Amino acid sequence: MFNEFFSRQDLLLIKPAVLLALFGCGILLTDLLHERRHKYLNAVTALLGLGFTGVQLALIQRAMSAAGYSEVSGFSGGLVVDGFALYFTWIFLIATAIAILFSVRYLEVENEHHGEYYALMLFSLVGMYFLATAMDLITLFIGLETMALSVYVLAGFLRGDRRSNEAAMKYFLLGAFSSGILAYGFSLLYGLTGSTNLRAVADALVARPSGDPVVYLALITTATGLLFKVAAVPFHQWAPDAYEGAPTSITGFMSTAPKAAAFAFLLRVFLVPLAPLRPAWEGLLVVVCVLTMVVGNLAAISQNNTKRLFAYSSISHVGYMLLGLVAGNETGLKGIAVYLLVYVFMNLGIFTVLVALRRKDIIGDEIEDLSGLFFKNPVSAVFMLIFLLSLAGIPPTAGFLGKYFIFLSLIETRHYVLAVIAVVFVVVALYYYFRLVVMMFMREATDPERLNISPGVAVALAITLAMTLVIGIYPEPFIRLAAGSVLVPFR
Amino acid sequence: MPGNYIPILVFLVLAFAFPVVALSLAALVRPSAQSGERLTPYECGIQPVSDSRGRYTVRFYIIAMLFVIFDVETVFLYPWAVQYKALKVFGLVEMLVFLAILLVGYVWLYKKGALEWV
Fold first, then answer.
1. Is A25 at the interface with chain B, CB within 8 A?
2. Cα dihedral sign for A144, A486, A86, A355?
3. Could you tell me the pTM of the whole model?
4. ipTM for the complex shown
C-alpha cells in the first residue's frame, strides 16, 4: 500500500536510525520504572540498542556485497548508503558504546544518573546516521540539528553545576548561530541550482560560468558553518568552553562521535556539491589548516585544565585531518578515515582515565589531579602514557598511522611547505602531552583518594588500549577498511 | 548576470543611507536639552521601582514548552487533514507514527510530574 511513496528498500536503509530512535524512546519509558539504584539498566538497554543497530548495519553491508553494489540509494536519491556512510556509522556506534561504558559510574558519582542521558545519546546517533548517509541539503540539515540539539542538552546535563550550564548555553548559542550561517549557505546553493540533491547541485554548479560572486558567497557561508562544526580556527572558540564545562564523560563523547559526524558532513559537502569549486576552496582550506594547527597547538601549551588542554589538542587534530582534504587524493581521504578511527580510540582512552579521576569531592580535571598517578595506579598511568604517545603520533601506536597517511598525501601532491609545518607542530604537541606525563610519573601524589575504576571503565580502557596498539602494530585490515570508505570526489 | 543583483545593491545602499540621513537630520532639527529627567526610562508617569529582570517561577517555562509541543502537533495535523484523501492509508500510518512518538514524550512528561501544578 506504500509502494507509491517509498519502497521496501528505502525502509531497510533507514532501519538503523529507526532502531536507534525506538530504543531511545524505550529508554525514556523504561527509565520511569527503574529504581534509583538500578539506573545502570538504562546503560544496558542503550548498549543493546547499539548492538541491534550494529547487526542491522552488518546485514545491510552483507546484502550489498552479496549483490555486488558499492552504493544503494533510497528515497529518490535523498539518502545513500555507501562505503563512506557505513564506515562512519561504525565509528559513531563504537564511540558511543565506549562512552556509555565509562558514563555509568561517573553519573553515579555526580548524582545525576538519569535515563535521559542514554536516550539523548541514541537520539544524537540518529542525527549522525543521517549526516553520514544523506544526499540532500535538507536531510543533512535536519540530521545536523538532531545531533546538535541532543549534544547541547548533554553538555548541560549537570543541572546543579554552573560550569555545565554555562557550557551548554555557550555551545547552544554559538551552535545555533553557526547553523544559521550554514542554512544561509544552503539556501543560496538551492537558489543557485534549483535543487537540494547534492549531486544535482554539483551538476548545476559545473554548468555555471566561473567567477560568479554569489557562488563564492554560497561557498564561504557553507564552509564557515561546516568549519564551525568541526571546530577549526578561526571558528573554534566554543570548543574549549564547551569541553571544559560539560560533564567529563560527555566531553569524551563530544570530542569523538559528533566530531566524526561533523567530519562526515564536511567531507560529503566538500566532495560532492562543492567539488566543482575546488580551486576556490583549496586556498581557503590551506589557511584554515595552518591557523588551526598553530592556534590549537600553541594555545594547548598554556592550559592548566586537562579538559581545556584536550579541547585545544582536538582542535589541532582537526587541522591535521583537514590537510588530508587539502591534498584531496586517495591517500589523503583514506588518511582522514584512518585518522578519525584512530583518534576515536585514543581520545576515548584518555577520557576514560579522566572519568576515573572523578571521585568524591575531587573533580579531577586540573592537571595537578594527575600528579603521582603512576604511584597510585600504575596501570592507568601507563595506559595514559600510551594514549598520549598515540595522540602525539609516535610509532608503534595507532596515532602514527593516521599522521603517516596525511603527511604522505601532502608529499604526493607536492605540498612540501604544509608537510613541514605539520611535522614542526607535532614536536610542539609532544611538549604539552609530556607535561601530563611529567605530572603522572615525576610528581608526588597530592591527594590520597584512589581511582574510581568501575567494570565499565575497565572494559572501556581495555578496548581503547587494545585498538590503539593493534591498529598501530597490525594496520593492514584497518587500512583496507578505510580504503573502502573513500568518497570519490564529484567530477 | 550581475545585472540581476543591482536591485539588491540599491536596496542595500538605501538601507544603510536611511538611518544615517534620518539621524543626522534629526540632530540638526531637534532642540538639545539634556537634564536628569530625560535620562529616566519613562520621562512621564510612574517612577520605575525595581529591575525588570526579576526571578519568576519556572512553571512559566513548562507551560510554554507544553504549548510548543501541542502546537507543533496541531501544525502537523492540519495539512494532513487537508490532504487526507490524497495520502490515503500511508498518511494515516505516518500520522500514527508521529502521534506515537509524541505520546512517548507526553507519558514521560506526565510521569516526571511536569503537569502537576501545585
1. yes
2. negative
3. 0.89
4. 0.78
